[in-house]
Design a protein that fits this description.
The protein has about 400 residues and is of the alpha+beta class. It is built from 13 helices and 20 strands. A seven-stranded mixed sheet has the order 5-4-14-15-16-13-17, with helices on both faces. A three-stranded antiparallel sheet has the order 2-6-3. Strands 8-9-10 form a three-stranded antiparallel sheet. The chain is globular. Bound molecules: flavin-adenine dinucleotide.
Length: about 400
């Protein structure tokens, strides 16, 4: 959606095909990082975004046994946005879709599922086949097809792009726990102990709670009584029994199958993958949606001009990968580091607060490092800025008022 908006602002004819009828999905990409907030300002959308219901998370803190460590402090990073904004993904996508609809060269077709890639005689991708809202088989010709179709990307599969998978130790259960006192914590808080890990995010009147389970253990664990899970959560966070009583059945516990992978080559002749389709991220740090947005910005900046001139080459597509590879690889390496140093030992019950991993000891001793971790997570390497064709002067007064 971001790429569609930016290309349309460059005057490029762009059609976004979305297989769902709406953007409704719970617990998906709700963490909007400072890099994305800054970009929205540059696109003149900061004031609209500020009107959405959002909670602000200013720090990430974990507790191992009785030892607390601040992993990241967003108040220390430069710029106006010193927090992660928690916004339902459908609100964010609706905002982008509304802004894109203001551009005459933008088309959004909902309820339209891509089923295959069109190719010419030499194998170059020339668009897509898709099933429209009425179930009719259609095709759409395009100079460039961009697979922004997520972790199960049909485009990357059809394009035959090779995927490198990384082992990941956990899957995640996600559940809402209502707050009792509505007190604001403004933080991401992880609790580690007795072979268990759970993380809460302050969502105003409830805690979005993620409970880590051993990879692939969902079915086995769901065979147990839900009451056991309620008791475990209540013990971990010191919640009274009635606070967790809202988790009445397993239907309320959503499974996130954590994946981590990356394409070797993000492109082929006439086709490019970005976002989760090019690199699915671990849920650690909530970076996935923000990296996808950064990919979109780089793609639009690099490709808008060749697309406008009708002179797009495969070399242009390679430039997109070159630009975005480093931030992706660094983010995935750091996630793998967190898996190995913290999550694997925590789930195995061997993480000992008396022998904390070195990075945690450093974060405890040197507060400035918490600003660095916040910067790397919240802004990242090679932050992308709105290209001049998409830039709209931000109305900062109305951003502040909202
Ligand atoms: C349960 C869950 C929770 C998550 N929580 C977070 C979080 O808190 N923070 C965070 O940063 N990231 C989170 N992520 C990851 C985040 O959602 C992704 O990294 C991000 O949304 C990637 O954006 P994308 O545009 O590449 O793909 P997506 O957001 O997955 O978008 C792909 C779109 O393509 C559509 N589509 C798929 N196939 C087709 C097809 N054949 N034809 C047409 N349309 C198609 C899909 O319906 C979807 O709308 C979470 C992921 C999951 C699964």
């Amino acid at each position: 959606m971001m790429l569609g908006l930016l290309l349309a602002r460059a005057g490029v004819e762009v059609t976004v095909l979305e297989k769902h009828r709406d953007f409704l999905r719970d617990f998906r990409g709700d963490t909007v990082h400072p890099s994305t907030l800054r970009l929205l300002d540059e696109l003149g959308l900061g004031a609209r975004f500020a009107r959405l219901r959002a909670e602000r998370l200013e720090q990430m803190r974990i507790q191992i046994g009785s030892t607390t460590t601040v992993l990241a402090d967003f108040r220390r990073i430069p710029g106006r946005h010193k927090y992660i904004a928690m916004v339902p993904q459908w609100d964010f996508l609706d905002l982008l879709a509304t802004a894109a609809a203001e551009e005459p060269s933008f088309t959004l077709r909902m309820d339209s599922t891509v089923t295959g890639l069109r190719r010419n005689g030499s194998g170059r991708v020339t668009g897509v086949y898709y099933r429209d809202a009425d179930g009719a088989d259609c095709e759409l010709a395009a100079e460039l097809t961009v697979g922004c179709d997520g972790r199960w990307s049909a485009v990357r599969r059809e394009a035959g792009l090779a995927v490198v998978d990384f082992a990941i130790p956990m899957d995640v259960w996600q559940v809402r726990i209502p707050k009792h006192d509505n007190a604001r914590t403004g933080e991401v808080f992880g609790r580690f102990g007795d072979g268990q890990v759970a993380v809460t995010m302050d969502r105003g009147d409830y805690f979005q709670t993620s409970y880590l389970i051993e990879k692939g253990a969902d079915e086995r664990l769901r065979a147990r009584d839900i009451a056991e899970f309620r008791i475990r959560l209540a013990e971990m966070f010191g919640w009274p029994e009635q606070q967790v009583a809202t988790v009445r059945s397993w239907d309320e516990v959503k499974l996130l199958r954590a994946e981590m992978n990356r394409l070797r080559r993000w492109y082929g002749d006439g086709v490019l993958c970005i976002g989760d389709a090019a690199h699915t991220m671990s849920p650690v740090g909530g970076v996935g949606v923000n990296l996808a947005v950064q990919d979109a910005v780089a793609t639009a900046r690099i490709l808008a001009e060749p697309l406008r001139r009708g002179q797009l080459t495969t070399r242009d597509l390679a430039r997109v990968q070159r630009r975005r590879s480093l931030p992706t690889i660094v983010a995935q390496r750091s996630q793998r580091g967190e898996h190995d140093l913290l999550l694997r030992p925590a789930l195995a019950g061997t993480l000992d607060e008396r022998r904390l991993p070195m990075p945690l000891r450093a974060l405890r001793r040197i507060p400035a490092l918490r600003g660095l971790t916040a910067y790397l997570g919240g802004i990242g390497l090679r932050p992308e800025h709105a290209p001049s064709f998409a830039y709209r002067a931000p109305n900062l007064d109305s951003v502040e008022q909202s």
